[in-house]
Amino acid sequence: MATCVHTKEIRDVEPSAQGCEECLASGDPWVHLRICLSCGHVGCCDSSINKHATKHYKTTTHPIVQSFEPGEDWQWCYVDEIYLD
Q1: How many CB atoms lie within 10 A of CB 41?
Q2: 34, 53 in Cβ contact below 8 A?
Q3: Which pTM value belongs to this model?
Q4: 20 to 30 A Cα–Cα from 26, which one of 3, 45, 53, 77?
């Protein structure tokens, strides 16, 4: 079973916006939202046209996001490509 050593980088963060930060600025729609657990950046998922959450990871290397959708609390590590419990 795969493990993740990046959980130590999880912080108590405040959301940067109530929607995808970049899509709100450009007027683009999104499908689902993710929040970076290192800094609080809110970005859109890979099903969205702009994939801002993944772009944020590639720019910052902040490894873990959590769903920012109501009723969802799963987390994903981009580095290890696994869901976290």
Answers
A1: 24
A2: yes
A3: 0.95
A4: 77
